[in-house]
Amino acid sequence: MIQLSNITCKAGNKILLQNINARFEPGKLHLVIGPNGAGKSTLLKIAGGQISPHAGTVLYETKRLETMSYQALARVRAALSQHMELSFPLKVWEVVMMGRYPHIHGNHVRKDIRYCHEAMQLFDLEELSERDYMSLSGGEKQRVHFARIMAQIWEPVPGSCRYLLLDEPLTFLDVHYQFQFMQLLKTLLQQQDLVIIGVVHDLNIAAKFADNILLLHHGKLVCSGTREAVLTSAHIREVYRLEPVIYETSDRYFLFF
Amino acid sequence: MQLNKQYRGVYPLLTGLLIITMILSACYGAIDISTAEIFHAFGKTVAGSGNLTLHERIFMEIRLPRTLFCLLAGAALAVGGVLLQALFRNPIVEPGLIGTSSGAAFGAALYFVLGSTLHFNTGEWTLPIAACTGAMLATFLVLGLSEKKQAGKTAIVTLLLMGIAINALFLSGTGFLSYIARDPQARSITFWNLGTLSGASWHAVIITSVVLVICFWRALSNARQLNLLILGEEEALLAGVSVQRLKREILIINVVMIAVVTAFTGVISFVGLVVPHFLRIWRGADNRYLIIGSALAGAVLLSLADIAARLLLRPAELPIGIVTSVAGVPVFIFLLRKKNYYF
């Protein structure tokens, strides 16, 4: 579980996040939504320990985030960030293997190779494994990085949850891989020690897959909970300035604009 | 996907080449020395008998330290290139571009001019220290001035342009010093700027190897973290690297290494660019492989350049910096024209 308490974050005089309280339990898919500049990425970066908040605390289970070393954190928490710059000719599997670096001293061993294989299988990368990373398309590169961060937290950690933070993971993916990826996250969540927090833009994706939706606006948490509680006409109107048509059956929930 | 399959066989091959170049470098020059003479020279020196022939003395006192120093210098320059390129995540950066060489040259020029004018103690360490100080000053000026105010990130274009500016400043400083210098000093400065290994001595070999052993050790122990750094600073941080510490350490290693070598050889450019690039095309871009491979290949390449420098105008010799530049510029141009490099 990750718990954020009274998180406030500023950039200069601008308030990016104000007094956020949230709990992210394992086994559930938590998706953060909100318009541009709402503070979604900042929230994720604070949860991942990349930025420290100006006020408030981040707890990983019972441990305060700032007491954990970068290395210790990297063994339990993997995050996908938004850029994928790399101008050196590394093989795909070499990039994926980098996910194992926080766990290995010296050279990688058979176990690490197996984890990389399994992570690459998840994202259909087996055939690309010997390809030069720089020659891949945007979506393929993104899948390589998915595999890398999955390899990073592939192995269960005794006595701790594992945490996966995804900042707009669907950006470069086609519809097929978007759905496959979201399905994959749901499957992974069956392992009860996994905490997944993602930022997405597509409200229908959030409605379809999320167990818990957090709606951010102007750095404040408007509300959180199930799709029926969060994705209401009133909220969408207030936050996105759009009038949605909501189509709801017992197992489906769609928004049209 | 096998354990470093793609990098297999590199080190034995390069080591073999290294041994061959070493022998060539020991044998050929203004005066050719036969292998028999080399064995005799070693034998006599080990036995401690003082009566070496002229050729044997040339070998022991000039040729051998020069050969060894050349290997060290080539290794240092190439590894320096690898480190800087990983640090800036860009394959076209090399020590000359960010002021290290021109700063070292300026420091050395100050030493040449002031050292003899003011008659202060000019022990064996003074020149390296002067060059080192100059190199650090120039490099940190370039880095400090091109750093963006908020992020602590350095945009590569700003960095290169700042490098041009600071290089120009230090080159004009060196120019001024050679202008006011007396003739022998001015010649030392000129030679220095062209790069030459003719001044290599046993002292230089010893000082440089001590520094290099430490620097290579530090570089290698950071190699894996450098791999993560080339994915991006944020990615490296997320994978558990303390990025600020890593960047600082790599910069210091790099500046010290390049400065010490440059202090004895003068400015030798393009080795740090060509060698890592060649190794990347050949096998791959893992920094662990690149550091060791570049050390070996850099040593080979600079030795070959030095042999060429000695033989082309025999019995006179060409400054080695001219040789490496003539060979390196086409590679640099080729690199720039390939579009898939990221800025």
Describe the SSE topology.
The complex is a heterodimer of chains A (257) and B (343).
Chain A: E1 2-11, E2 14-24, E3 29-33, H1 40-48, E4 55-60, E5 63-64, H2 70-76, E6 77-80, H3 92-97, H4 110-122, H5 138-152, E7 162-167, H6 175-188, E8 194-199, H7 203-209, E9 212-217, E10 220-225, H8 227-230, H9 233-240, E11 245-248, E12 253-256
Parallel strand pairs in A: 3-8, 3-9, 6-7, 7-8
Antiparallel strand pairs in A: 1-2, 1-4, 4-5, 9-10, 11-12
Chain B: H1 10-27, H2 35-47, H3 54-87, H4 100-118, H5 126-146, H6 156-180, H7 183-194, H8 202-221, H9 223-229, H10 233-238, H11 243-265, H12 271-282, H13 287-311, H14 320-337
Helix pairs in contact in B: 1-3, 1-13, 2-3, 3-8, 3-11, 3-12, 3-13, 4-5, 4-6, 4-7, 4-11, 5-6, 5-11, 6-7, 8-11, 12-13, 13-14
Protein name (chain B): Iron complex transport system permease protein
Subcellular location (chain B): Cell membrane
GO molecular function, one term (chain B): transmembrane transporter activity
Task: Give a verbal description of the structure.
Chain A: Part of the ABC transporter complex HmuTUV involved in hemin import. Responsible for energy coupling to the transport system. Chain A: One of its GO terms (molecular function) is ATP binding. Chain A: It comes from Chitinophaga niastensis. Chain A: It holds the Pfam family ABC_tran. Chain A: This is Iron complex transport system ATP-binding protein. The complex is a heterodimer of chains A (257) and B (343). Chain A is an alpha/beta fold and 257 residues long. Chain A has a single domain (2-256), classed as P-loop containing nucleotide triphosphate hydrolases (Rossmann fold, 3-Layer(aba) Sandwich), CATH 3.40.50.300. Chain A is built from nine helices and twelve strands. In chain A, α4 (110-122) crosses α5. The longest helix of chain A is centred in the middle third of the chain and has 15 residues, at 138-152. The two termini of chain A are 35 Å apart. Chain B has a single domain (7-338), classed as ABC transporter involved in vitamin B12 uptake, BtuC (Orthogonal Bundle). Chain B has helices at residues 10-27, 35-47, 54-87, 100-118, 126-146, 156-180, 183-194, 202-221, 223-229, 233-238, 243-265, 271-282, 287-311, 320-337. In chain B, α3 packs antiparallel against α11 (243-265). Classes of the chains: A alpha/beta (257), B mainly alpha (343). Chains A and B meet through α2, β6, α3 and α4 of A and α9 and α10 of B.
